[in-house]
């Protein structure tokens, strides 16, 4: 594989001739649509004949909602070792709440591709937001904690899940140690029946980092309790924040630098965003709301608006601006260059692999680039 950045005057056919590959291969790999308009600054993945190179073994997880397109799911599963089904909830009494939509087809299709289906547990309230009261109620109650653990065991056995992913956010500082104890309890129970447990970690850069996202997460304790951890290294640029890269690599590196001081690198998976944001300008805190877009969609927007794609070297992320109906927009997203920067971190630090939030939008070039550099270890 090689990455090529489009210049003025380029066409698919000229680039294909330059690399002696078929135009159809470039079109397919990069999900180009007729009439195959290219954007200056667009990064294309060029599928060359693969030469042998030693690949780092890696485990790759992806989150999916039960309403995922069947086509997207089947196209993505060959690249995943685990599929985390999002999500199961629970009550303050510790009763497990299944997703509204049936998840059995996700489990069946995961196994068809040799991928392990994972039950994702989240503390969502009735408003669909993370609720730390739910967390507090369960982790401090022996009865509720025991009930939830038992129901998790029963559900994984009943439906055939291979394990549990505990994705709790906004944990109160006072709940830090009892939350760690809850994760340990679930993990030990899961191991007894041959199943795995992972936990999602807010992107801390130091042990004493302040803020509701960070103070309730004990990296060392959770790393010891769980089989794997996912560093949620994204959302620096987010829906209600100012325009910026979703996962700037210099920030991601700081998280990894801290994480490896607390957790064995063999347990750590790097979080990777599979999306971008489109902000209307000017940005006004508390008022402006960015729109979530796919990475392929971002390039299509740039093509339709005649925008040039730029690349921020510090964050290792692409971005562009455009005007529509008198409103300026700023878009940050991921391309094969920004993905390569994240893959390089995984290899540099010898991490366990990666976890994608989320796989609802198909980004073929990403998966082909990933497969060219990692030996995706299926169980």
Description:
The structure is a single chain. The chain is α/β, with parallel strands linked by helices and 379 residues long. The protein folds into two domains: 51 residues, Membrane-bound Lytic Murein Transglycosylase D, Chain A (Roll); 264 residues, TIM Barrel (Alpha-Beta Barrel), CATH 3.20.20.80. Helices cover 34% and strands 23% of the residues. It has an eight-stranded parallel barrel with strand order 3-4-6-7-8-9-10-16, surrounded by six helices. Helix 7 packs parallel to helix 8. The protein is globular, with a radius of gyration of 21 Å. 42% of the residues are buried. The mean pLDDT is 97.
SS field, number of helical segments = 12
Largest sheet: 8 strands, parallel, barrel
SS content category: alpha/beta
Total beta strand runs = 17
Oligomer: single chain
Mean pLDDT: 97
In angstroms, what is the radius of gyration?
A: 21 Å
CATH homologous superfamily grouping of the largest domain:
Glycosidases
Q: Point out poorly predicted stretches.
A: none
Order of helices and strands: EHHEEHEEHEHHEHEHEHEEEHEEEHEHE
Provide the domain count.
2
* CATH architecture descriptor name of the largest domain: Alpha-Beta Barrel
Shape: globular
How is the CATH topology of the largest domain named? TIM Barrel
The helix fraction, in percent, is: 25-40%
CATH class annotation of the largest domain: Alpha Beta
N- and C-termini, Cα separation: 26 Å
